[in-house]
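thoughts on my protein:
***
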Amino acid sequence: MAKTRLLSLQLFRDFQDKECFFEKLTNDENMTDRIIGQYVLLVIFSAVYGIVMGSYNGLQQAVASGVKVPAFLTLSLLVCFPVFFIIQFVLGSKLGLLGMLNIILNGFLMVSLIMVAFAPIVIFFLITGDNYAFIKLLHVAIFSISGFFGAKTMVEALRYCCEKSKVYPKVGVVVFRFWIVILAFVGMQLAWNLRPFIGSRGMEFELFRQREGNFYLSVIHSVRDVVVGEKKDVDENSDDLTLD
């Protein structure tokens, strides 16, 4: 029976009652089961999004991305969580290791939930369009929006621990915002090293690519390609436009 509860969708119904939800997050009862359940859902949702993400370049890329996206979120958490826990412990937080992990993992689960909610939109653009640069920017936007909601969920949970349950220092909420920035930079660098997630249709399948360039240049080049592509289309159809 306990195993069935690990995959229960009760978690999403709890989002409607924030105080009750945050109380469950910080409650020591069944915390290990809750953490395992959240991680299982995180892996499922992020794997589904990864499969949709990689389907742009065929079955091999879809399978690879279905593994890479959960690995990306897991590695980001493993790399950044230790420094967060130590700093909060030094600041006087009374939350234990599992309590902090539960809160942070819940934010990551929110990220994966928002991403998989965008999957139908991604599929729509995969079917109706074939602009690689635009698809890349679309995924960057989805990751950014998902990250925002994930961070918001974590901040609200920590603020509850500070104001309601009195087990978290007020300064810790401020420090946490800086940790979010660090997490974002680590995540971008990690994603760059794990690429490709989408894969260009003009290239053969690659599990990993050579370490060249950086994430920021890739985004700038994608924006340029989208803008230049649109201008090129307008120029090629200029005669037709003038006849309308």
In short: Residues 13-239 form one domain. Residues 230-244 have pLDDT under 50 and may be disordered. The radius of gyration is 21 Å.
